[in-house]
């Protein structure tokens, strides 16, 4: 069975995170590597671009309370978006923000440590919303609803 290199698989948020997921910290824009020579010459820092979509990349650290192994409890999500995703407002008295990841997909990746090898996942999303907020509708689906 041949699966193309870089293949990712869409997955529903509730299937991947049955107990929800929590944003830890803030969302940050990813930038291209800048050498010391580039910095010394005051060259501008360029945003890192997602090859398949051509959109800028952002990342955030998330916590998954349903993860069985400690190494899986904290992970990074990459966002390919025109603008930086804005997390929902913080919940008073909670150190983390509960969110729902939209447009969720995963891509398998081999991980090694010494002689141990295992499969881990690169997690991507197109956006996020508050847990109790309605899902965002795309412009196409909004147009389809008007036509009906």
UniProtKB/TrEMBL annotation:
Give the start-end ranges of region Disordered: 34-68
Instruction: Give the domain of life.
Output: Bacteria
Q: Report biased composition (Basic and acidic residues) as residue ranges.
A: 36-51
Task: Tell me the protein's name.
Answer: Plasmid replication, integration and excision activator
